[in-house]
Amino acid sequence: MEKIKIDTEFIKLDSLLKFAALVGTGGEAKVVISEGMVKVNGEVCTMRGKKIRPGDKVSFNNQELEIE
């Protein structure tokens, strides 16, 4: 599990996928999120603007991120 440190209160899900280099573009992030390929804390999330806060876990494409 990769740990991602953010310096703000939250980061939006689509921005997190780009920041962590799991997708190449915002458009790609939008597609994978809307198709239900991303999980937040074990639940499928289709909201690309979902606020991800420290302590949350995000998984996509057999990779897991923990936000710090």
Structural summary, described in words:
With 68 residues, the protein is α+β, with helices and mostly antiparallel strands. The protein has helices spanning 13-19, 26-34, and strands at residues 2-4, 11-12, 38-40, 43-44, 51-52, 57-60, 63-67. The strands form two sheets. The protein has a five-stranded mixed sheet with strand order 1-7-6-3-4, with no helix packed on it. Strands 2-5 form a two-stranded antiparallel sheet. α1 (13-19) crosses α2. The longest helix is centred in the middle third of the chain and has 9 residues, at 26-34.
Show the helix and strand layout:
Elements: E1 2-4, E2 11-12, H1 13-19, H2 26-34, E3 38-40, E4 43-44, E5 51-52, E6 57-60, E7 63-67
Parallel strand pairs: 1-7
Antiparallel strand pairs: 2-5, 3-4, 3-6, 6-7
Helix pairs in contact: 1-2
List keywords for this structure.
68 residues, alpha+beta, 2 helices, 7 strands
Query: What do the pLDDT scores average to?
Result: 96
* Count of runs of 4 or more consecutive helical residues: 2
Largest sheet: 5 strands, mixed
Strand order of the largest sheet: 1-7-6-3-4
Number of beta-strand segments? 7
Radius of gyration equals: 10 Å
User: What is the end-to-end distance?
Assistant: 12 Å
Q: Helices and strands: which structural class? A: alpha+beta
Question: Which runs of at least 5 residues are low in confidence (pLDDT < 50)?
Answer: none
Helix percent band:
10-25%
**What proportion of the residues form beta strands (DSSP E)?**
25-35%
List the secondary-structure elements in sequence, H or E: EEHHEEEEE
